[in-house]
Amino acid sequence: MSYDTANGALAMAVALRVFAPDVRTLARWLLGVGVRVGIDAVARRGGGRA
Question: Helix, strand, or coil here: 50?
């Protein structure tokens, strides 16, 4: 393993550790938006159960 490969792997590990919370927050936000859009579509269609 060369120094370039080791440095690249280390940089990738650091980047994943640094940006993981932001990616997790973005994914949760996108899932929340999807749920709200889905609920709105079901409510407009009238397919919800009482």
Answer: coil
| Residues of the chain below pLDDT 50 | none
Alpha-carbon distance 47 to 32, whole Å?
A: 20
Q: What was the pLDDT predicted at 1?
A: 78
Contact partners, residue 42, CB within 8 Å, separation at least 6: 48
Backbone region of residue 2 per phi and psi (left: phi > 0; alpha: psi in -120 to 50; beta: other values) = beta
C-alpha distances (whole Å) from 33 to each of 21, 25, 28, 30, 47 are 18, 12, 9, 5, 20
pTM across the whole model? 0.61
